[in-house]
Specification:
This protein is α+β, with helices and mostly antiparallel strands. The protein has two domains: about 1-55, no CATH class; about 60-115. It has three helices and five strands; from the N terminus they run βββαββαα. A hairpin with a 5-residue loop joins strand 4 (about 45) and strand 5 (about 50-55). Helix 2 (about 60-90) runs antiparallel to helix 3. This is Tail fiber assembly protein.
C-alpha cells in the first residue's frame, strides 16, 4: 500500500496506475493500524516527511459550531413536537388525563424555551440548553 500526502489517501498499485509521484510505501501492518486507529475519532494526516500518522481533528470553526448548535436545537424541537402531538390530540378530543394535560404544558414550555434560545450575542458559545420534561 502507498500513501500520498498531497492526495491525503492510500493507493494500491494493483488498482492505481500510475501512483501519485509523492507516494510513500506503507506496510500492511502500518496501514491496518492507521485504519483501526482512525475509527477512534482520529484522522490520518501526513507528518513533516509526508508519512501518514494519526492526529486529532482540528477544532470546529466558529461557523461549524453555530451550524452544530442550530442542528441540535432543530433536533430537540422535532423531539419535543413528537411528544406534544399525541398529548395535544388527547386534549383536543377531551380524552386527556390530568397527567397528560400537565405533560402537554411541560413539553410546550420546553419547546418555547428552545425557540427562545438567544441566537445573537454569544451564540452558541454560552448556550444553556433547557432541560426536557421527565
Amino acid at each position: 500500500m502507498y500513501y500520498s500526502a498531497k492526495e491525503r489517501g492510500f493507493f494500491d498499485p494493483a488498482i492505481h496506475d500510475p501512483l501519485p509521484v509523492d507516494a510513500i510505501e506503507v506496510s500492511d501492518e502500518e496501514w491496518q493500524a492507521l485504519l483501526i486507529g482512525n475509527s477512534t475519532g482520529k484522522q490520518i494526516t501526513p507528518d513533516a516527511n509526508g508519512y501518514p500518522v494519526l492526529t486529532d481533528p482540528p477544532p470546529p470553526t466558529p461557523e461549524q459550531v453555530k451550524v452544530m448548535a442550530e442542528a441540535k436545537r432543530q433536533q430537540l424541537l422535532v423531539e419535543a413536537s413528537m411528544h406534544v402531538a399525541p398529548l395535544q390530540d388527547a386534549v383536543d378530543l377531551g380524552e386527556a388525563s390530568p397527567e397528560e394535560v400537565i405533560a402537554l404544558q411541560e413539553w410546550k414550555r420546553y419547546r418555547i424555551a428552545l425557540n427562545r434560545l438567544p441566537t445573537s450575542a454569544g451564540w452558541p458559545d454560552n448556550i444553556e440548553w433547557p432541560t426536557p420534561p421527565a
